[in-house]
What does this fold into?
Amino acid sequence: MKVQEILISIVLLSLAGCQPAGKAILTDPTPSSGIAVGFEPTASLEAQVSPATVLTDSLGREIVLDKLPERVVIAGRAAQLILHAAFMFDEADTRVVAMEQRTQRDVSILPLVDSAYADAIQLQRDASAEAIAAVNPDVVLLKSYLAGSLGAPLETLGLTTIYLDLETPEQFFRDVRILGTLFGHPERAEEVLAFYQKRLDLVSRTAATVPAEARPHVLLLQYTDQGGKVAVNVPPASWLQTTLVQLAGGEPVWLDAAGSGWTVVDLEQIAAWDPDYVFVVNYDGDPAPATQALRADRGWVALKAVREGHLLGFPGDFASWDQPDTRWILGLEWLASRLLPDGTFSFDFQAEMRAFYQELYGLDQAAFETHVLPLLNGNYAP
It folds into this structure.
């Protein structure tokens, strides 16, 4: 090699060695929350460093990642609700490498929509920060109310956490966009949200035509009979269940009795409300046994909703449609079909379910009919 070529090679090697290593910076209003995660430095002058990924999570923290995460872990309470949102993106198949399974019902949709499900690490329920760290995640997705109990220990171990809410329609729209950024597919996020917005707008426009005095009085409750003791509970005023009733044109009767979580109410109070409609939710399965028990109860027979055949089980399939899950849009449409005046809002439940699973999860007609329709429960039919 000529002397001139040797000198050029030395210079190039020196310049390559000066390239800075990338890092992910997590910024927060509190100065102590910053962490850094390194990746391999560039190997040559020709190598291109990927532009940083910047997002703001549900707690308002700006998170900067040097590259799109390749190992995403979803854990903690309500992990299933985050998983259902994440798998509306094809990228989740290969990037969600570990999950905490918290299925409410016997069957999960994840094996159906996740081609790599068999290879994913199944974390134990209430997995510790150390157990999560052991799978070497690039980022961990958690519900925001876990920031102190699980998020803080994870961050102490040097892991990047991203918090989502998904608790209201507004939060759902924001958090789907966060997932779109995280998976490097913001266009898909907008496609998903267009599906929701179209249906939300239709319900809202129709409900707006109903005068306030004509809105039916509604009671939505959770029925439990643990230990043979029957209890009925109402949700907080700020929860999605209440919002869905209001968006669908109903007037929740339980707001004054609502607490910070599911709150027990007695039959005397329910009789005083005497609602036009009663909707019963069951997160463990079919609400039919609960609705049958209430219709047979002598104390409930006198209620207007029972006399007029308006005590109904809230529909569900893999999960109940009333909760902060991707299926809340189906729940909203179903409620509107029940609460809005006859002829003002039609809801073809099979067509809407088919569109939901095809457009959001990529299921074809055969998969929908084989794996989804048989799970449908509640009083879904008109």
User: Anything to note?
Assistant: The chain has a mean pLDDT of 88.
